[in-house]
Give the backbone structure.
Amino acid sequence: MRRILISLVFLPGLLYGQNPSANKILEQIDRNMASKNRVLTATMIVHAQRGERIMELKVWSEGDKKSFTEYLSPARDKGTKMLKLEDQLWMFSPSADRIIQISGHMLRQSVMGSDLSYEDMMDDRKLTDIYDAAVIGPDHIDGQACWVLELRAKTDDAAYYMRKMWIDQERNIPMKEECYAKAGKLLKQTNLSGVKKIDGRWFPTKMTYKDMLKTGAGTEFIINDIQFDATIPESVFSKAALR
Amino acid sequence: MLTFKLAIRNLIGAGLRTWLNVFVLSLSYVVIIYMNGMLDGWNRQAKTDMIHWDTGQGQLWQKNYDPVDPFTLQNSFGPIPGELNNLVKEGQIAPVLITMASFYPEGRIQSILLKGIPDNQKVLDLPTASMIGDSTEISALVGKRMAQSNRIKVGDLITLRWRDRNGTFDAADVRIAAIFDTNVPTVDAGQIWIPLTRLQKMLQVPGEATLLIRGKSEWPSFNSEGWVSKDLKTLTAEIDQIIKGKSFSSAVMYLILLLLAMLAIFDTQVLSIFRRQREIGTQIALGMTRWQVVKLFTVEGAMHGVLAAILAAIYGIPFLASQSRFGIPMPKATDSMGLAVAEKIFPVYSIGLIIITIVFVLITATIVSYLPARRISKMNPTEAIRGRIQ
């Protein structure tokens, strides 16, 4: 099956003697990375100007529309929970003992002081729905041959006007992504590494997000354990689970 | 007249006791006039500064705009009515476009209000003309507070990131063209000003604004659909409320002072009536009615207020006049609360304030003097002449 898919991806390029179709590569990534649901525990390391903050968290997610996150440590963040359902986001903070909905301008704020904003977490539309993608050439990252994809917004409401993605040619996973402002300034960069074969699929277990306008080494997101297609009770994705 | 003469003679005869009472009461006069004059001066200065820097003579707000709710900003753009174009070109009306943005001082991220205003406007005192320059660069203005808190200097290049009308991120560097010094923090703290046409282009809202500020010329007739008018009274209502709160807290202070003075007068009256029983008895025996004696004692007490007014004038007028001329220096941190406070406040003493203060103190002193004097009307003159306690 995989061979057939690879052929589907690369055959047109070979036929024309050019790069493969970017949309096909994106679809292939979706197939490789997507799962019905996943449960993971991860460590988030925020490299701030005044030192680093390390947080442990557990995430339950179903498709792109539903996710539930619980912070396990450090003590001051323990018990903080976030629930995303479609385009809505709620947060529970045990110190305030309140559930608040993150909306409007608050979505632009940083998640727990990291280089990620809430709206980065909220953008769950398919890349192919928002961007026109084109392969602009091959490249290498850590010795791995990659295709470089350039994605230009085809809708008015795309968060980033242009993105560049480096896709591992062999394993069909993104290795690096850059997000650009309309004026061409590099705004965000994501590096993916620690690729492991989990449940028959290649998956990056370390992601480093960096707001390129800020100083600092960015935010590392390290997946310690991940389960695909696990059984998640529906009650997890409810506001009642936040308290 | 006889009552007055007697009252003054008795008061002067009482010596130091009278002068102590008069001094404390005179302090009440001076403090009441000083505190109220300072608040009036502050109120006037704050409103004048706000008109010059922030509100103009009146504003029109796009119907969705709510300055205390930043969530409204992304939907608060409206086309500037065509009928106002000439006044906008002449600089008599200043359209202002407002959006949320982020800027990166020393590698940190900070949320700010990014405001666009025409560089040729003549409505506000903002030095917008200094934004006219090289068209390849975006020139910006910041206030002194914003510059100090983020260590910004003229000529610095700072990075801004914003979202356009559709939500797409964009970023650019802007050059600080000038740093303005104002008493009005509402145009300074957490804000960066750039030319209006630039911001319209950046947000993809050509010809649109969030609010319109007028100068001295009235609004011409135009189709105001989608715009809400805000008059000067509404725009400066916050200052009135703060001054009202301040008036109450300062009133507590001078009422305590006045209470002390009144207590002293009251005690003096009680003591006088006790010590001068024989005098009271003799006066009644010689033909004065009881109420004439009550009147004499009441006038004596009330004369404290008159003497205090004279004493207060002797030392208060030079003091208050000097404060009014040279101003009262205010601590630098006072205006960090979001209220317009100048480095110096010049008190304003209105005739009304002075008259009301004098009448108020005199009436209070008269009432306080009358209350103990009422006992005289119940005195038996023969017992009083004998000096028996009644």
